[in-house]
Design brief:
68% helix, single chain, mainly alpha, 3 strands, 7 helices, Arc Repressor Mutant, subunit A
């Protein structure tokens, strides 16, 4: 005999909403990042390149906070990007304990060549929603993400 978890209506609603959010996230992410794997880039590597492209050089920990990755994961991601000569590490002159990560010319060339098609794919994914629905979803996701801070 199988036992089912019994929950009140608020719990059931929250759990169903969570499952829908996670399924939508996984689905959109998978479709939007197919091109990245064809270029030999992981989602995290793309995130680092994109953050550096749009925000400029920054510390490894700042990049990790921007793309929601742990410091251990960031070390490996940046190591791999550095091996491909897409980024370089430089000691921070004011505090030599910190490394600042920079895009190389090769890295900048790569991200500038792939970002437009990535942005177009994201736009295609969100065409399922009206402009108003996209704004509402954005506002709701931000509200949910800030809960408990």
């Amino acid at each position: 005999m199988t036992a089912k978890y019994r929950c009140d209506p608020a719990e059931a609603r929250a759990l169903k909403t969570y499952v829908k959010l996670m399924r939508a996230t996984e689905s959109v992410t998978a479709r939007a990042h197919r091109q990245l794997s064809s270029l030999g880039l992981t989602f995290s590597q793309f995130g680092v390149l994109e953050a550096l492209y749009h925000l400029g050089p920054m510390s490894q920990s700042a990049i990790g906070q921007k793309i929601l990755r742990s410091s251990g994961n960031m070390t490996m991601v940046i190591d791999n990007l550095e091996k491909r000569e897409l980024v370089r590490r430089e000691r921070n002159q004011s505090d030599r304990r910190f490394l600042i990560i920079h895009l190389t010319d090769k890295g900048k060339k790569l991200i500038t060549s792939i970002f437009p098609s990535h942005a177009a794919e994201i736009t295609r994914q969100f065409d399922a929603l009206t402009a108003s629905e996209q704004q509402t979803l954005g506002r709701l996701c931000k509200k949910l993400g800030l809960k408990g801070r």
